[in-house]
């Protein structure tokens, strides 16, 4: 049995790995690096619908989720973009992901749903910033006159 104290760090590592993989897809499609877009091997033309916009979401949400900043909304947007990709791009070619090539879209979609629901884990900028605003200031020393 895994100790409960590992839940936060494990969730953080899961979030970071998923986000890094996601942002690599966006970087590849936007800038033509890391093998480029999966379809062409090159950068997508700026503004092209829906691919360039999906890549922009992958890059921005990938970075935000990776560092744990506005994690839940960014993960929700990332999940929605992958649901769109699955149902618009892949599902018309067959119902099952193994048949239509949509395994990655389905996995990213559900992984980001999990992150949106569970939050960023222990290691996240969200947690550091939230703590800073919520913790009360230390009490001022009382001035005693003798």
Describe what is shown at a glance.
The protein has 146 residues and is an all-alpha fold.
Annotation keywords:
6 helices; single chain
Explain what the structure shows.
There is one protein chain. By secondary structure, the protein is an all-alpha fold. Helix content is 63%, strand content 0%. It contains six helices and no strands. The longest helix is centred in the first third of the chain and has 25 residues, at 7-31.
What is the element layout, followed by pairings?
Layout: H1 7-31, H2 51-67, H3 71-90, H4 97-100, H5 103-118, H6 125-134
Helix pairs in contact: 1-2, 1-5, 2-3, 3-5
- Poorly predicted parts: none
Main beta-sheet annotation: none
Radius of gyration: 20 Å
Helix content: 55-70%
Portion in strands = under 5%
Task: Give the overall form.
Answer: globular
Tally the helices.
6
Distance between the termini: 58 Å
Averaged pLDDT, please? 89
> Helix/strand/pairing class, anyone?
mainly alpha
Number of strands: 0
SSE pattern: HHHHHH
